[in-house]
Structures are given as C-alpha cells and as structure tokens.
Amino acid sequence: MAARPNPLSALKLVTRLAQNSRRRLEVSIENVENALDTNVRITAGEREHYRECVEAAKELSEAFGAIADAKLPKPAPKVKRKIGRPSQREIAKAEAQRRG
User: Fold this and answer.
1) pTM for this one?
2) How would you label 4-22 residue by residue, b for 16+ Cβ within 10 Å and e otherwise?
3) CA dihedral defined by 80, 86, 87, 89, rounded to 10 degrees?
C-alpha cells in the first residue's frame, strides 16, 4: 500500500533548504566583497561582473528569506486509526464529504 502524502514535511524541507541557501548566499556575498576590497589583480570588467553577481545574490537572499520566514500550518491532529477495511457506509460518507 502506498504511503499517504505528507505536505507539511515537504513544506518543512523547503523552508530548511531556503534557510541553508540564504546562509550560503550571505557567506558568498561577504567573500566576494572581501575579494573586491583586497584583491588588486581583479580587472575592471571582473569587478563590474562581481558587483552584478553580488546584487543578484542579495535579491535571491531576500527571496529565500521570505520563503524561510513563511508561517507553516500546524500538524494534523493525531487520531486513532481504524484497523481493517471501511464499511460501505463509511465509504459513502467519505465520498459525500469529498464531493460536498
């Protein structure tokens, strides 16, 4: 039998990935800015390219921050699961709830 999907775990995974990506981008931005300040061998074209990359990374960092800060719903309440097959009445009731 296939497992039921768990969308909350997928949302938690996405927020965790966004937090990690945001942290990596911030470290990368800091390293590039340090290189721009200290490295005298970088050409003017490379400096401009690095500055553009830093600006793009800052925008992405803000977007990842918005994803990471999103409020997640509460987990579903724990209910005792019935063992065995559902009766026809339970099937009809579930189908009526699904449609209506």
Assistant:
1) 0.71
2) eeeeeeeeeeebeebeebb
3) 80
Residue with tokens 């065995």: 84
- Report the alpha-carbon distance of residue 63 to residue 45 in Å, rounded: 27
Question: Position 43: which residue type?
Answer: T
Please tell me what DSSP assigns to residue 69. T
Task: Write the pLDDT tens digit of every residue in 4-33.
Answer: 778 899 999 999 999 999 999 999 999 999
Please tell me the distance from the alpha carbon of residue 22 to that of residue 13, in angstroms, as a whole number.
14
Per DSSP, the residues of the chain read -PPPP-HHHHHHHHHHHHHHHHHHHHHHHHHHHHHHHH-SS--HHHHHHHHHHHHHHHHHHHHHHHHHTPPPPPPPPP-PPPPSPPPHHHHHHHHHHHH-
